[in-house]
Amino acid sequence: MAASPFQFDNTYARDLPGFYAPWKPASVPSPSLLFFNLELALELGLDPDVLNGPEGAAIFAGNLVPEGAEPLAQAYAGHQFGAFSPQLGDGRALLLGEVIDRLGRRRDIMLKGSGRTPFSRGGDGKAALGPMLREVLIAEAMHALGIPTTRALAVAGTGEPVYRQRPLPGAVLTRVAASHLRVGTFEFFSARSETQRVRQLADYALARHDPELVGTPDRYLALLQRVAQRQAALMAQWMNVGFIHGVMNTDNVTISGETIDYGPCAFLEAYNPDAVFSSIDHGGRYAYSNQPLIARWGLARLAETLLPLIAGDEGQGALSKAIGQATEVIDAFPEWYAAALLRGQREKLGLQAGDDQEDRALAADWLTLLHHHRVDFTLGWRRLADAAAGDERPLRSLFPQPQAADAWLARWRSRGEGGQAPESGERAERMRRVNPAVIPRNHRVEEALSAASEQGDLAPFRRLLTALQRPYDETQEQAEYTEPARAEVTADYRTFCGT
Fold first, then answer.
1. Which of 100, 126, 449, 481 has the greatest CB tally within 10 Å of its CB?
2. In what helix (H) or strand (E) does residue 152 lie, and over which residues does it extend?
3. Of residues 251, 261, 359, 376, which has the active-site annotation?
């Protein structure tokens, strides 16, 4: 075993025995490093000279377990499309360990696609190259947009095919996260009535994500509230960039408030609040507009697992009180979400704080206008910044009738900003800093993944990734990544979970 380029400190393995299965990644015939995130490696305090080469390829493919790693498959359950599965777990992923980054933050290092585990449920535990590169693209785009997310450190080719509908090149992703604690982790032990283990898990989550709450009298209720507030803020950010996760099962709802699992995700183009892209979401449960509702539903499942801890050992009366307290938190979620959404919308509209009801109506009517005229969500907001600078022509060109937005624009101008005229260059620049020009357009993502998987050509992937890492730059170099797909392409677009 080689000296480790990682300085591991593995609290999950050390503090939570019985919450995982120790396991080793499968060996692969021909490791090759296809993507390495230099910026993230430096942020994590890693040595890129070691990792960005053959040794790194061996580590990231699973052939070499670095010193200090304690690979394990985490146990968790989950509500999947509303139906409870009491045992899911890491069926093709292994937590190698944890490192402390340069800012003092604890970060998980996990392999995804590293072979079968005790939780594989008949699967092969492997991953195809396309879905792993998709996770790189979307996660790095979300990071550049300022949205809490897991990130990709590396993708290694395995040199062997994986078999789905057809043979595909195999790959392993190395994912970095604040933690991989999920609502489903709590559900796993709660469903088994293992209250002491739920308590262990809650205490671990508090120490890791909310250390100032450790030892406080109402810490378990406070944990529920913190998770709910983080998820409320996250949902608002998703909605304000037109992101559709696609599979918001409770095993994909993180305690940290990070976005996790970029399977059948997609971004809106022509604005449609009922948009669904996932091929497995037949009833639209995880449609764009449903995401805040589903987040609240998932948090209610977390609340159920924490009720015995909130109540303590004070009997039936305490349990009734705990139910009331937890219900208050869940019922507060829509208010937290609405406040976070409005803060983001005000920034996107170039407005300072004002009358909440008036501004919510202004934002809602803008979205109705985009929906009615099937205007591209991203470009609609971006061209509004041009209007703030005094040039309404780019915005009007997005509408079938150029005058369609006149009445709304008049309201927006009159709303103004503390006496500052809407036609302000400074205001427009602030709007351009929060309204991206470049998102992961679905057709561009598919083009890049197809080139990589079918032709072994990573150049389109690399060019797209570079553009996504600069989402607010609107330059000639970026221009090809700002344009929507043709309507007929978008109408038939479907995403798949990638398993």
1. 126
2. strand 151-163
3. 251
